[in-house]
């Protein structure tokens, strides 16, 4: 009976806390921007604790056939995990899809963030650090991590076309509270959809004004534009999720 009880307890713990880290949910968002563009957003890989294998990401890319892949920060905070990160980046490069990215707060905890930047460059990832790049039918703007004090909104938007749609990628969505530039769509991550979805989570672990307002996942709009907050692929601190599955997001714009 003790063994049976232990097995039931383990099964319950696994189903509640571990399975959501492995059970990838593909969210699908459609916004009528008229671009006829599909973007695959991957956020918060945290490869040191990522339970989604590179092969699963490869199958997702083949199935969705995105025009662009956007990685919204937090690759890893451990230099020892850069070889593991390379496995995921090689999958992205092998897809032949253009990949753009920004850095997150955990990336800036690396002792030598330059090693990560160099790896991204080697694997064909276009890193945007408070800058923009004109793409087919829209401007892509990358704002560096707000929580790390790296965001520079002015330089990021300097010279951006007033006529073309503006798509923004960033890590910490709290930056929208400081962003007073028009944008058509913004992609962010960082908040993991709470990761452990219990009441008052952001009182126990404050992560900025936005989640304190009850905004920590999904689609939202303010006076300057519409933004989406991904629940992310990986985990931080503890390799568990509670009532929140890992997420990749397909945006049809």
TrEMBL record:
Keyword Metal-binding: yes
Pfam families, alphabetized: Metallophos
Assigned keywords, A-Z: Hydrolase, Metal-binding
InterPro entries listed in its UniProt record: Calcineurin-like_PHP, Metallo-depent_PP-like, Metallophosphoesterase_sf
Signal peptide residue numbers: none
Gene3D superfamilies referenced in this protein's UniProt entry, alphabetically: 3.60.21.10
Keyword field contains Cell inner membrane: no
Top-rank taxon, per record: Bacteria
Segments forming domain Calcineurin-like phosphoesterase: 39-193
UniProt name for this protein: Metallophosphoesterase
Species: Gordoniibacillus kamchatkensis
